[in-house]
């Protein structure tokens, strides 16, 4: 089993400390920067938009992992100028044209990822498993940092792993987002999650950043 990877949730860094955190993450070889994009309708909050994403991309070599929490993603995908190799997650619940959107990303060389909310059944993956690189499992109802995990989603990750394997897609990865404490991360790693969104529950808190990162890594197979 491969070691788990970290996607650091840049929304948790505070607007004045974004680049300080990015430099710490570069120094620690963090694998991804998780960038939350919110439109105020799909989720009851606003977060980063296209200009921020374009600027951040110029400032770091860490791979971006953009989480689009928007309605009608099909109208918005070309706003971001997504680059080959980047990861982009789209919500199943946010568009009637999910296959078209995933196909659009794949043609650009972007890794298409499907995001599913806690209440969305895993069976929706059946028709799109051929078109995705990963599944972003929401462990909270998205929109805000600092929420408590929806308990059944810990075991949901294991069901998703088995479901993807049974569909013939062992290569499709699982990423876990929302209230990823070290304790939850350890359970989710055991249940098959591969990438862990690190927010206020793990690395964005009081303490030595190298140590906070190391503690999370210890929970995910390092
Ligand atoms: C989902 C966001 C949040 C957040 C994660 O919309 O990705 O889940 O950044 O951080 P915490 O640890 O605060 O849930
Ligand atoms: Zn997110």
Please outline what is shown here.
With 222 residues, the protein is an alpha/beta fold. The chain is built from 6 helices and 8 strands, in the order E-H-E-H-E-E-H-E-E-H-E-H-E-H.
Any descriptors?
alpha/beta; 29% helix; binds zinc ion; TIM Barrel; binds D-xylitol-5-phosphate; 8-stranded parallel β-barrel
Structure description:
Helices cover about 30% and strands about 20% of the residues. It has a single domain, classed as TIM Barrel, CATH 3.20.20.70. By secondary structure, it is of the alpha/beta class. The radius of gyration is 16 Å and the shape is globular. The model has no long low-confidence stretch (mean pLDDT about 100). Helix 4 runs parallel beside helix 5 and helix 5 packs parallel to helix 6. Strands 1-2-3-4-5-6-7-8 form an 8-stranded parallel barrel. It binds D-xylitol-5-phosphate and zinc ion.
Structural class: alpha/beta
Count structural domains.
1
CATH topology: TIM Barrel
How confident is the prediction overall: mean pLDDT? 98
How many strands, what sense, and barrel or not for the largest sheet?
8 strands, parallel, barrel
List the helices and strands and how they pair.
Layout: E1 5-9, H1 18-27, E2 32-38, H2 50-59, E3 63-69, E4 87-91, H3 98-107, E5 111-116, E6 134-138, H4 152-166, E7 173-177, H5 182-190, E8 195-198, H6 209-219
Parallel strand pairs: 1-2, 1-8, 2-3, 3-4, 4-5, 5-6, 6-7, 7-8
This protein binds D-xylitol-5-phosphate (DX5) and zinc ion.
The site of D-xylitol-5-phosphate has 19 residues, from loops.
Enzyme class: isomerase
InterPro entries: Aldolase_TIM, Ribul_P_3_epim-like, RibuloseP-bd_barrel
Protein name: Ribulose-phosphate 3-epimerase
């Amino acid at each position: 089993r491969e070691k788990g990877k970290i996607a650091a949730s840049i929304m948790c860094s505070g607007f004045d400390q974004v680049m300080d955190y990015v430099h710490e993450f570069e120094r620690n070889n963090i694998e991804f920067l998780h960038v939350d994009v919110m439109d105020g309708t799909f989720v009851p909050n606003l977060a980063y938009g296209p200009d921020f994403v374009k600027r951040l991309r110029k400032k770091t070599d860490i791979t971006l992992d953009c989480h689009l929490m928007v309605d009608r993603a099909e109208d918005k995908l070309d706003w971001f100028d997504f680059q080959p190799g980047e990861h982009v997650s789209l919500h199943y619940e946010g568009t009637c044209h999910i296959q078209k959107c995933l196909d659009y990303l794949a043609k650009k060389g972007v890794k298409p990822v499907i995001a599913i909310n806690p209440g969305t059944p895993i069976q929706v993956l059946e028709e799109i498993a051929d078109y995705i690189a990963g599944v972003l499992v929401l462990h909270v109802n998205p929109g805000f940092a600092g929420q408590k995990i929806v308990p059944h989603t810990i075991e949901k990750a294991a069901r998703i792993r088995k479901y993807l394997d049974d569909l013939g897609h062992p290569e499709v990865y699982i990423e876990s987002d929302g209230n990823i404490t070290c304790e939850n991360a350890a359970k989710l790693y055991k249940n098959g999650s591969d990438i862990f969104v690190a927010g206020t529950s793990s690395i964005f808190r009081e303490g030595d950043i190298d140590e906070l990162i190391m503690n999370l890594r210890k929970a995910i197979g390092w």
